[in-house]
Design goal:
The protein has about 120 residues and is of the alpha/beta class. The protein contains two helices and eight strands. The relative contact order is 0.14.
């Protein structure tokens, strides 16, 4: 939930709490009770809608299956999965039957799952 939505909900809640006794004091007990009921129903409906309409963050499943060999003379070699820079949160990553990854000359080799 963003900061702006949070501030809006807190302000609306504070106004609802302040409105019921104000209506009760100005317009009588019956009107105050009716205002309280209406505000409680509105808050319940708003909470229900907020819960139903809330979007969950997108998760990303990364998978590499049956990859071949990766060989690099200088630099890095990868025959699996390298994570980083994905659009969503990585929920799972799998590399299966990756074979060998060979890096010579001071490089990096990955034969599984690597990344941040």
């Amino acid at each position: 939930m963003t900061r702006r939505v949070r501030i809006t909900l807190i302000t609306a809640g504070a106004l609802c709490v302040a409105t019921t006794p104000l209506v009760w004091a100005l317009f009588g007990q019956e009107n105050g009770e009716m205002a309280g009921v209406v505000l409680q129903v509105a808050a319940g409906v708003a909470a229900l809608l907020l819960g139903l309409l809330k979007r969950e963050p997108q998760s990303v499943v990364v998978e590499a299956v049956d990859t071949g060999k990766a060989v690099a003379n200088v630099g890095s070699a990868n025959s699996g999965v390298v994570l980083g820079g994905s659009a969503g949160t990585v929920s799972s990553a799998r590399a299966e039957r990756t074979g060998d990854a060979t890096a010579e000359g001071g490089g990096n080799a990955n034969s599984g799952v690597s990344g941040t």
